[in-house]
């Protein structure tokens, strides 16, 4: 039995310990947001956060994440209340067909949440392991720039953000 925390919930997996993490998330836990692109760790579509760090879930056997904290795209927000990064992706057109989007969001979220820079070249470097076949990446980079800047505003003035949420 393998114990992990997924999106803040304690979960256990009773199965083959070398089953890929992406398959456990999708097939066993019903979390369909994580997508499989290449299945070889080359495209980043399957990126999830393990203890806050982006990893390709298609390469990781579930036994290697015993006792860790996993975050999938489902942890970010809901359609009625997207987080700062999801909102920026919507506003800047950062999502096209949707295959790469969950992986892009998770990699970018680690960057935004970790206090990453809003410099476009730094963001491009961070997202280099996530491939998108639909865009030239500019809309994605613009979305991450906006999210970093919006997050800094929230941190500088957290009281007004809480008040704004309460008034909605």
Structure description:
By secondary structure, this protein is an alpha+beta fold. The chain folds into two domains: 2-75, Beta-grasp domain (Ubiquitin-like (UB roll)), CATH 3.10.20; 84-167, DNA polymerase, domain 1, CATH 1.10.150.120. The protein is built from six helices and five strands; from the N terminus they run ββαβββααααα. Strands 2-1-5-3-4 form a five-stranded mixed beta sheet, with helices on both faces. The longest helix is centred in the last third of the chain and has 19 residues, at 138-156.
Blueprint (SSEs and pairs):
Layout: E1 2-6, E2 9-13, H1 21-28, E3 47-50, E4 53-56, E5 69-71, H2 84-92, H3 101-113, H4 120-126, H5 138-156, H6 158-167
Parallel strand pairs: 1-5
Antiparallel strand pairs: 1-2, 3-4, 3-5
Helix pairs in contact: 2-5, 3-5, 5-6
Supply the key terms:
168 residues; Ubiquitin-like (UB roll); five-stranded mixed beta sheet; 2 domains; alpha+beta; disordered C terminus; DNA polymerase, domain 1
In short:
The protein is of the alpha+beta class and 168 residues long. The chain is built from 6 helices and 5 strands, in the order ββαβββααααα.
How much beta, percentage-wise?
5-15%
Would you report the number of β strands? Answer: 5
Compute the average pLDDT: 91
Could you describe the largest sheet, including whether it forms a barrel? 5 strands, mixed
SSE succession = EEHEEEHHHHH
Task: For the largest sheet, list the strands in their spatial order.
Answer: 2-1-5-3-4
Helical stretch tally: 6
Question: Which regions have little confidence, pLDDT < 50, spanning 5+ residues?
Answer: 157-168
Percentage of residues assigned to helices: 25-40%
Could you tell me how far the N terminus lies from the C terminus, measured between alpha carbons in angstroms? 43 Å
The CATH class of the largest domain is Mainly Alpha
Estimated structural class: alpha+beta
CATH names the topology of the largest domain as DNA polymerase, domain 1
Radius of gyration, taken over Cα atoms and rounded to an integer in Å: 16 Å
Given the C-alpha coordinates, what overall shape results? globular
The domain count comes to 2
For this structure, what is the CATH homologous superfamily of the largest domain?
A: [2Fe-2S]-binding domain
Second rung of CATH, namely the architecture of the largest domain: Orthogonal Bundle
